Amino acid sequence: MTEERDGGRRGSLRRALEHLRERMGPDTVDRLWIFPVLEWETRETGLIVVSRYGADDGEREVHTLRFRGSPERADREFFQAELEEEGRVPADRLPRIIAGVSRRLRGEDPGEPEEIAVEGDPEVFDTLFPPPDAVEEPPMTSGTNET
Fold first, then answer.
1. CA distance 12 to 68
2. Residue 50: beta bridge partners?
3. Reduced to 3 states, what is the DSSP secondary structure of residue 25?
4. Is the separation of the CB atoms in 28 and 147 below 8 Å?
5. What are the boundaries of each domain within the chain?
6. pLDDT in tens, 6-33
7. What is the pLDDT of residues 62-107, one digit of tens each?
8. Which of 41, 42, 105, 125 has the fewest Cβ atoms nearer than 10 Å?
């Protein structure tokens, strides 16, 4: 995984993705739109829009996951998430829906979302962040200069 891809997957966004994975099987997820997390000193807020495969191949369920949490560096941790089904739409309408969400959020200035094509592949979903035990610690040094 590139550092760029993992760089924004910390703190409350990482917890939001874990929350999403627990509540929806990645094999049902078509696409994710991850809006940039808004950060303040003591909290972060964010939005992820999810399209899931519907009963009809050309139809998608649209869900939103709004979340609030403490940044990774906070003294006191908290996390809240609300996952809601917004409706069902033809798959070809998704770009217009995401454009509408972006327009409505402009006042909060979150920037453009990152679109991730999961396409029902759990491995793609898992590449959004490494498991906690995959983070490598830097090697310890003794502090002496041996030659």
1. 7
2. 32, 63
3. coil
4. no
5. 3-128
6. 344 567 888 899 899 999 989 999 999 9
7. 999 999 988 766 566 788 999 999 999 999 999 998 988 887 776 6
8. 41
